[in-house]
Amino acid sequence: MKPSRMLSQLAKTIAKTCSGNCASVQINHGKTPTVPSRQEVVNTISQLGYAHVPSEFYLPNESQRLSPLLKKVQETYQAVPPDVSSPGNRFRSLIQYAFRPDQNDFIEIERSHEYYQTADTNHIDGGKVRVFGKIEKCFLENPLIKSIVSKDIEMARQLSHLVKFDETLRLIIHQIRYAPKFEMPSYSSPWGLHKDDEPLAFIHLIQIDPNVIGGDTLISNDMHNIYRVFRLKSPLDTMVFTNKPWHAVTPMGNADQEKEAYRDLVYVDFINRK
Length: 274
Known about the structure:
This protein is of the alpha+beta class and 274 residues long.
């Protein structure tokens, strides 16, 4: 089977998705939002070890053209299989790519849907290989997803003190649904304050059901005090983390326990592995 190539596929569709400088596009929702430049986002990541990025940074400026693409992405979460590695009412698919310097491209690796974290960073599921479902092509080939990943790659290239674009680099894409069910909450693994294995991780909100409560991002500088709280509210609102800050996401429940709820995200991680 011919290996999947990430960047070469991206190049064919980014131009169709974005016109002009995609890093500075904005959508007018009654008032003009302040949209950071790519350099401003990179600087914030470098200085703080994290960044809260508004959705307008990632969105093309024609919202009418965007809507069908976003809807198709959202629909794919119905087919994401359960994460059976530990409790938490999560659904999860994954794919991994290795960077090939000679081709300047990311190539899908063997066993690309297996995932490993160290026990130091994940005391619940770390230290073992977890096997998830493999992300479907219709998700990966969606022009909106390609545009998001392309921007993340561009920023990763600028953050050369965190990520080296050599043969050890891995690009990991996670498709995750958190789905609290009636009285049963949904939560991440690990669910408490932790640091990441990955030196650079982008967490993009795809959609959130209005029945969800929780899901807020907490940031701590010493595991004893919470000094920032963020909430991802609109599709493509994004958090970016290095492996420096302690952070967590609060467990999710149902405001109306008679109704189900969901919170859908895509993670784009970069890590050098020998």
